[in-house]
Amino acid sequence: MTFEVMSMENPMLFVRNVTLPDGRRGHDVLARDGRIEAIGPQLPLPEGATLLDGQGWLLSPPFVDAHFHMDATLSHGLPRVNQSGTLLEGIALWGELKPLLTQDALVERALQYCDWAVAKGLLAVRSHVDVCDDRLLAVDALLHVKQQVKPYLDLQLVAFPQDGVLRSPTALGNLKRALDRGVDVVGGIPHFERTMADGAESVRLLCELAAERGLHVDMHCDESDDPLSRHIETLAFHTQRLGLHGRVTGSHLTSMHSMDNYYVSKLLPLVAEAQVHAVANPLINITLQGRHDSYPKRRGMTRVPELMAAGVNVGFGHDCVMDPWYSSGSADMLEVAQMGLHVAQMTSQAQMRACFDAVTVNSAKILGLDGYGLAVGARADFVLLQARDPVEAIRLRAARLAVVRGGQVVARTPAATATLSLPGRSASVDWTLQR
Ligand code: FE2
């Protein structure tokens, strides 16, 4: 994605005394004209620069959501609430809501969500947009939103044939029209096609379409508990055949949770060789999968630590916030990381940090963000968190003290503290470990 510098209030921002995600302490960051110009200990404060005192807190690159549905977000209660909380009632509800959607309402909800996102330091989102409405109402609405939020949030859109690109008679034509209008990425949903053969055929034709147009691919792939749902294998195969290495993402991959271990030992190297990215959606996978189980109930999330160990780039997505499928969420990618850490039992120090990477650098790689990261020459986008390191940030879902985009502070949140009035003494706590 290309980077557009915001109109400058002050072209220079000096962030004093922060801790970096790799543990370096007492560093300063100088941003000029939307880019990071210097990072180091005790840098000279240039005259005229805006000063942001980091007070030793963690400075992170912004959060990135690798998988979201902005056309459905914040529609909770429209036209009614999902009473059972199940996937099937959610799909039925979305079907009831679709004919009632208006472009204005879609735009309004998406813009409200982008405000929530920016306030949480979430500055890049890959959103699927349903193309199975012949009016392409949501496509046009989100293309409009994409332009409107560009100064403060990178919104990447995936043409998503929710009802199946082969199963729905107009889906393929609609998908191509959506790409023609400026949607960035080719989507798909092979496990929802009528047969396994149709699913495999949909993967082939969608990968070829992406190859022809020079686009990326991101498919809802194997979002089921069926261990024989193996479209990820087909996706990796066509990725290699068409030379799409690094440009293809398999989202969800929940069937992998239930697959035979021998088969997975053969599958993971194939995915790694094809450089297919994987996206898990911990909040949604843990709530929607395993619904046909009695006890024990499967967790349903894909094999995140095993994928990472095999060399696959894994990002986490929020997937849903306050929509027909999920009535919770607040654009907080630290909540997503925390759930991923728990569901995958990723509790070693290295694994907890890997969960932080899954909502920052790994997802940035999936979106192909240009100039992302805390490095000289990178875009001056970052978040000051009320935590001393990434693991503490996940534990506390740390307050976003300041969010910076293009060298400008675009959001602030007060520090989380409580004052106590106890018998004989008063005190304050902020839940960080005092050493
Ligand atoms: Fe999704």
Q: Key terms for this structure?
A:
34% helix; alpha/beta; TIM Barrel; globular; Urease, subunit C, domain 1; 14 helices; single chain; 4-stranded mixed sheet; binds fe (ii) ion
How would you sum up this structure, described in words?
- This protein is an alpha/beta fold.
- The protein folds into two domains: 12-61 and 373-419, Urease, subunit C, domain 1; 63-367, TIM Barrel (Alpha-Beta Barrel).
- The chain contains 14 helices and 18 strands.
- It has an eight-stranded parallel beta sheet with strand order 6-7-8-9-10-11-12-13, sandwiched between helices. Strands 3-2-1-4 form a four-stranded mixed beta sheet, with no helix packed on it. The chain has a four-stranded antiparallel beta sheet with strand order 5-14-15-16, with no helix packed on it.
- The longest helix has 18 residues, at 196-213.
- The model is unreliable at 1-7 (pLDDT under 50).
- Bound molecules: fe (ii) ion (FE2).
- Fe (ii) ion is lined by residues 67, 69, 128, 220, 319.
Bound molecules: fe (ii) ion
Count of discrete domains = 2
CATH architecture of the largest domain: Alpha-Beta Barrel
Proportion of strand residues: 15-25%
- Arithmetic mean of pLDDT: 96
CATH superfamily of the largest domain: Metal-dependent hydrolases
C-alpha Rg (nearest Å): 22 Å
Unreliable parts: 1-7
Instruction: Return the structural class.
Output: alpha/beta
